[in-house]
Structure formats: structure tokens, C-alpha cells
UniProtKB/TrEMBL annotation:
The keyword Transmembrane applies. Keywords: Membrane, Transmembrane, Transmembrane helix. This is O-antigen ligase. The chain crosses the membrane at residues 6-33, 45-68, 80-99, 140-160, 172-190, 196-226, 238-255, 344-364, 376-394.
Length: 424
């Protein structure tokens, strides 16, 4: 399937359908929206490869096509924040090769995951319709995928082979969070029935999988949006917040499994101070803490982390917590798919963490400052804030360049009066 998407993407690239090119880049670089697809039609067709590498190839072609035909903007507040972060990553990689004996291949593999951050230089040269159209396309695709997951879960009819966790079911796409919220508040001004139905479909995949991190993220984003929504009077905000609380309790009362999951999370907080894991929540907190405690022991690792060495080339048993790797007969020391903070501490240390937070914080601040102009800004502010402060402990997508593709593109599209977005 990725080869088919690659060919479609190349065709769209030369047919000047850049909206679909952006959508295909995002889908491939996120490895099918982080879906755990086990179907052979979606992986390693024709030859062994990574799906996200196919997306990166399209992105490189897309970047240079826009650069040579429309130009780019390499200076600006957001561009400067990205440049500083990328410069640190590159210099850190060079240090890795020269002084840590890391292979150039390991460094390149790490840096390629952040390549999509360079989209900030060409996005101001995209048509507004291309930017908004791509975001809408991914939203529709997410609703379709979520509908498929709901159908397969409820009927046990397997159309596409996904990884199925016993007692949990199929993991929802990472975009289920953002589009649950954006459809709930009718970001695209479509009919309310369509918008609410799409929001419900996205959220049902989260509920059916008992994905607590995603569910709480949706709840927190809703709270923040209501509280900071400038067009709402205070009494209406209070009523809206109380309504969300009541609906949440009703949902917990209906879903015993969700209620039990939430109760266990609350109980796990008692074991964290003792350094003991009693479930996913305590495991994630202590996993990140173990990495943080390790890197601050040495000035070198505190500044730049352990580096970009791959898991297969790292032969030390430094950490106690991690996913068990049968091939290496140990827990994975560097890689994990759930905890962004663990990755950032290990890979780039406190200095890299600082530059990352500056970049992320800049986007949050700009959307916050513009929230009086439109609820769209408030939505993006709420989503990014909760993603950084909460969702990042249960997912690592925000550590990769593809995560920033739509916050950056939508920021420039929403700021057409203040920023030059290529148009005719």
C-alpha cells in the first residue's frame, strides 16, 4: 500500500495537487497514523523497507519542488526557532560521530525523523487551500479508519489485519485525539449532525480500546478550550465545564472497564513515590524519571544525552525499566513507543529538551496570543498545550517531525494577514 501511495503522491506532485501530497507525506511518515497494521499488503511490498522512509522520499521531492518553483522563507520567528533546534540536532550528531564512535548511519536514521520540521521554510509559499485541504483530507481519512476499526471490533470481521491486544482490542490512530476535538467544535463549519457524528466515531475507537491517555487528553483539551474560549461569557463557561464533567461521570458509570482503568491509575500514584510500578501510568512516569536521573549524573549526558546510537548497537544494560526484547535478552534501553520524555532525555539531554520546549512553546504562545481573533486559535492552543503536558507521557508522536506538519501549516494559513502565504 505504501508503494501505491508513493506513486499517487508522485503523480499529485507533478499534477500540482499539493494538498494530497501533504496528506500522503503525513500518512506515510506517521506509519499509517501510528496504526499497528499487520497486513502484508501494507508493509514490505516488493522489498524490505520502512514505511516512513517512503514518506520522507516524497517529502524531499516536495520540498525541492516548492523551493525551486515558489521559493522559501528561511527567516522569521518560527523559522528561527526551528533552525536553532535543527542546528543543535545536527551538531549533536556530528559530536556523536567524532567522539562517541557512533556510526553515521545511526545519526542519519535519527535525524531523518525530524526532517519534516524543515517544512516551516516552504509552508509560507503554499496556497491556503492546499494547507487547509490537506488537513481536512487527513480528518476524513481518520473518520473512515475509525469507522473501520469500530466495525471490525464489534463484528469480529477482519477486513484489514491490525494488531489485536487481548482485552483492549485495536489501537486507535493517533489523529483520533485531535479530530475528536476539532469535529466536536465544528472546526470546518459543516452541518452539526455530520460534525458531531464524526467526533463520536473518532472517540468511540478510543473508548473501545480503553486508551486512557487518549481519552483523558480529549477531556483535558475540551476543558482548556472552554476555559480559554474568548467568545464565551463566564457563566456559559461554567455551565459548559459542568456539562462535560457530568457527561464524563455518566460515561464512566456506563463503562465499567473504563471506570476500573481510571481507578487503577489513581491508585498507581501511591506507588510512584516508592519507585514501584503497578501499572501503565506508574511505569511511564518512572520510566522517564529513570532516564532523567541517569543523564544528570554526568555533565556530558546532561547537556546532550546519550546520543543517536541505535538500540541494536547499544550493548550496555543501563536502565531497569523498558519493554523486554527477546532477541537481545534484555529490556530496550533507548527506544520506546509510548513515552516522549524518555526519548528526549536519552537522545538529546537537557539542552536539546530546552530547545524542543522553546519550539513547542513558541507555537503554543502564538496560538494563545491570537485566540481573541478566532476559536480556531484556541483549539490549536488547547490541543498543543495538553499534548506537551499530558499526552507526551503516553505517546511519542510529538517527538517526530511529522507531528509539527499541521500545527505549522495551519498556523501560517490562519495568519494570512500577518504572514505571506503564497496565493494568487
Amino acid at each position: 500500500m505504501d508503494i501505491v501511495l508513493f506513486l499517487i503522491g508522485i503523480s499529485c506532485l507533478f499534477r500540482y495537487n499539493q494538498a494530497w501530497v501533504l496528506s500522503i507525506i503525513f500518512i506515510l511518515c506517521s506509519t499509517y497514523l501510528q496504526l499497528n497494521i499487520k497486513d502484508p499488503l501494507f508493509n514490505n511490498v516488493l522489498f524490505v523497507h520502512n514505511v516512513n522512509d517512503i514518506g520522507i522520499i516524497i517529502y524531499v521531492l516536495f520540498f525541492f519542488k516548492i523551493l525551486f518553483t515558489r521559493g522559501a522563507e528561511f527567516t522569521g520567528s518560527l523559522q528561527n526557532a526551528v533552525t536553532v533546534f535543527l542546528l543543535f540536532l545536527v551538531l549533536n550528531g556530528i559530536y556523536d560521530i567524532l567522539f562517541n564512535d557512533s556510526s553515521a548511519i545511526d545519526v542519519v536514521k535519527f535525524l531523518r525523523g525530524r526532517l519534516l520540521l524543515t517544512a516551516v521554510y516552504i509552508v509560507p509559499r503554499l496556497y491556503v487551500d492546499e494547507v487547509k485541504g490537506s488537513f481536512r483530507q487527513v480528518a476524513i481519512i481518520t473518520v473512515f479508519v475509525c469507522s473501520l476499526l469500530i466495525f471490525q471490533t464489534l463484528t469480529s470481521i477482519e477486513i484489514v489485519k491490525f494488531r489485536f491486544d487481548e482485552g483492549r482490542g485495536i489501537k486507535p490512530p493517533i489523529t483520533a485525539i485531535i479530530f475528536t476535538i476539532f469535529y466536536l467544535f465544528n472546526y470546518w463549519n459543516i452541518s452539526k449532525i455530520k460534525s458531531y457524528t464524526a467526533s463520536l466515531i473518532c472517540f468511540l475507537t478510543i473508548a473501545l480500546n480503553l486508551k486512557m491517555t487518549y481519552a483523558v487528553s480529549v477531556l483535558l483539551i475540551t476543558f482548556v478550550f472552554i476555559l480559554f474560549r474568548s467568545s464565551l461569557e463566564m457563566n456559559k463557561k461554567v455551565i459548559a465545564v459542568l456539562s462535560v464533567v457530568i457527561i464524563s461521570f455518566v460515561f464512566l458509570g456506563i463503562s465499567d472497564k473504563f471506570c476500573n482503568r481510571l481507578t487503577s491509575v489513581v491508585q498507581e500514584t501511591n506507588t510512584i513515590s516508592a519507585g514501584k510500578t503497578s501499572g501503565n501510568f506508574s511505569y511511564r512516569i518512572l520510566h522517564a524519571k529513570e532516564r532523567f536521573d541517569y543523564i544528570i549524573k554526568s555533565p556530558a549526558t546532561a547537556v546532550r544525552g546519550i546520543g543517536y546510537i541505535s538500540e541494536s548497537n547499544y550493548h550496555k544494560k543501563t536502565f531497569r525499566l523498558g519493554c523486554w526484547n527477546e532477541e537481545r535478552n534484555r529490556v530496550d534501553q533507548l527506544d520506546n513507543g509510548d513515552i516522549m520524555w524518555s526519548n528526549i532525555f536519552v537522545r538529546v539531554g537537557l539542552l536539546g529538551c530546552f530547545f524542543y520546549i522553546v519550539l513547542f512553546g513558541y507555537l503554543i504562545r502564538k496560538f494563545y496570543e491570537e485566540r481573541y481573533m478566532s476559536d480556531y486559535y484556541t483549539l490549536w492552543f488547547s490541543y498543543l498545550l495538553i499534548t506537551l503536558l499530558f499526552t507526551s507521557f503516553g505517546n511519542e508522536s510529538m517527538w517526530y517531525g511529522y507531528f509539527f506538519l499541521y500545527p505549522i501549516t495551519e498556523y501560517f494559513a490562519l495568519n494570512t494577514e500577518n504572514y505571506f502565504v503564497y496565493d494568487t
